[in-house]
Specification:
Layout lengths: L3 E12 L2 E12 L5 E5 L6 H8 L5 E3 L4 E5 L1 E7 L14 H14 L4 H17 L2 E7 L4 H14 L2 E8 L15 H19 L6 E7 L7 H14 L2 E6 L3 H11 L3 H7 L7 E5 L5 H10 L2 E4 L1 H7 L6 H6 L3 E4 L11 H17 L7 H4 L8 H16 L14 E5 L16 H11 L5 E6 L2 E5 L2
Parallel strand pairs: 1-4, 6-7, 7-8, 8-9, 9-10, 10-11, 11-12, 12-13
Antiparallel strand pairs: 1-2, 2-3, 5-14, 14-15, 15-16
Helix pairs in contact: 3-4, 4-5, 5-6, 8-9, 12-14
Bound molecules: guanine.
Protein name: Guanine deaminase
InterPro entries: Amidohydro-rel, Guanine_deaminase, Metal-dep_hydrolase_composite, Metal_Hydrolase, Metallo-dep_hydrolases
Family: Belongs to the metallo-dependent hydrolases superfamily. ATZ/TRZ family.
Length: 453
């Protein structure tokens, strides 16, 4: 017996560059919220399965004009920074952190305030089609546990990190870990508490070891965090080679690139996701591919803070796992649709170049462009592979993490006039033009967690 059966037309990524259209398929969901079977109209038992379920209350027909897409995976989001989204994007990263972000994050010592912001950001991401999020919380252990608890209760697959920053010279007195030992002890307690919360969920919540970035961390804490991640087999997240300033800071301190330094501390492994990575050398990218570490590409944020466009096409070609991150609030938008659009636009600017006074053949970087299908891959299957979780694809054995996009709502700006429009064109229009209003239902691990009537 299936617990749910959907009759729908859906899109899923077939390969990094190709999309599969699943037309009028039956998606059969098991009791754990996994896709047990996808029955295509040409399968011999299609009519039999349809007849068996069509008159039951576990059957749902997705009406014409609505399409199912895998839920999106946000590989880099500072949940606390939702409170300052859209502000101060005109100043450099270092100033933005010290004048806006650290004071704003310090407020999360207050659990009531943390609850208000965290409930809102989790709901907002779900309403934007984001079913899995890799979150930075703040340095505060209790508020970070609270974020994991809110994800658990709202049904979002949250991977949550208590942020570690213990380097006295680089962190303000009002906002850092008390000392190195406390940072490590708080992280260990945090990991254990989140593992307990995870037992109460169907979709899973996960503790993530989270050194903010090398510039705010002592060597002792970085090594200790690498050891904790190994001990508890957790995910790891940080920022890596984001901007000229951050990249050079690590070079000056260790005489090597960020990627190499992170690896030396045991922080690059299969469940590591590093944000930005704009200044990775080819050697660094090889290290990412060899260790199975992933890049969280944050194209909106990068336009403000990264001083460059990351060559994702080259790194993908080298075998690095890549997904997309909203990077609230270096990126102002909670929508991974917006980030997919920006990923394509930024890649085109890298390929063509941006300075009109330079001759065309010297202006850009060849073979840098990505298509919207590649962005769709990054925001779904690429995100799932980056986290080593069975999510981001509509395939048997994967979680039923799905968004229903209705292209027919009256306020929709989706110009679909021809009922026979090729479905791959419909997907392109959805990726470029859909807004939260179009996202009518969202499921995580088989449970409906958002609906808009
Ligand atoms: N974009 C971004 N980069 C960082 N580097 C260290 N902390 C941050 C942060 O909060 N946002």
């Amino acid at each position: 017996m299936y617990t749910k059966v959907f009759l729908a037309t859906a899109f899923t990524s077939k390969s990094p560059k190709e999309v599969d259209v699943l037309k009028d398929c039956l998606f059969c969901i098991d009791g754990e919220g996994l896709i047990e079977r996808i029955v295509h109209p040409e399968h011999a038992d299609y009519e039999k399965v349809l007849d068996e379920y069509i008159h039951t209350d576990v059957f749902q027909k997705i009406e014409a004009g609505s399409y199912l897409l895998p839920g999106f995976v946000d590989l880099h989001v500072h949940a606390s920074q939702w409170a300052q989204a859209g502000t101060a994007l005109d100043i450099p990263l270092h100033d933005w952190l010290s004048t806006y972000t650290f004071p704003s994050e310090a407020k999360f010592a207050d659990l009531d305030y943390a609850k208000t912001v965290y409930e809102d950001v989790v709901s907002t991401l779900l309403a934007n089609g984001t079913t899995t999020a890799l979150y930075f919380a703040t340095v505060h252990k209790d508020a970070s546990v609270l974020l994991a608890d809110i994800c658990a209760k709202r049904g979002q697959r949250g991977l949550v990190g208590k942020v570690v920053m213990d380097l006295v010279q680089e962190c303000p007195d009002y906002y850092r870990d008390a000392d190195t030992q406390t940072a490590l002890q708080d992280t260990e307690e945090f990991i254990l508490q989140v593992k307990e919360i995870a037992k109460t969920t169907k979709q899973g919540v996960y503790p993530v070891v989270t050194p903010r970035f090398i510039p705010t961390c002592t060597e002792e804490v970085l090594a200790g965090l690498g050891a904790l991640a190994a001990k508890y087999d957790t995910h790891i997240q940080s920022h890596c080679s984001e901007s000229d300033w951050a990249h050079q800071h690590v070079q000056q301190r260790f005489g090597k690139n960020d990627a190499q330094a992170l690896n030396d501390f045991g922080l690059l492994q299969d469940k590591s996701v590093m944000a930005h990575c704009n200044f990775l050398s080819d050697e660094d990218a090889k290290l990412f591919a060899e260790t199975g570490s992933a890049i969280a590409h944050c194209p909106v944020s990068n336009a403000y803070f990264a001083n460059s466009v990351i060559p994702v096409a080259r790194f993908a070609e080298m075998g690095v796992d890549i997904g997309l991150g909203s990077d609230l609030s270096g990126g102002f938008s909670p929508s991974l649709y917006d980030n997919s659009r920006q990923a394509v636009m930024s890649s085109r600017m890298l390929e063509d170049g941006v300075n009109p006074s330079v001759p065309a053949d010297e202006r850009g970087v060849n073979d840098s462009r990505i298509t919207i299908a590649e962005a769709f891959h990054m925001v779904t299957a690429g995100g799932g592979a980056s986290l080593s979780l069975p999510i981001g694809r509509l395939e048997e054995g994967y979680a039923w993490d799905v968004q229903r996009v209705d292209t027919t709502i009256p306020s929709s700006r989706l110009p679909i006039f021809d009922p026979n429009e090729p479905l791959l064109d419909v997907l392109q229009k959805i990726m470029y033009l859909a807004r939260p209003e179009n996202i009518r239902e969202v499921w995580v691990q088989g449970e409906r967690v958002h609906s808009r009537n």
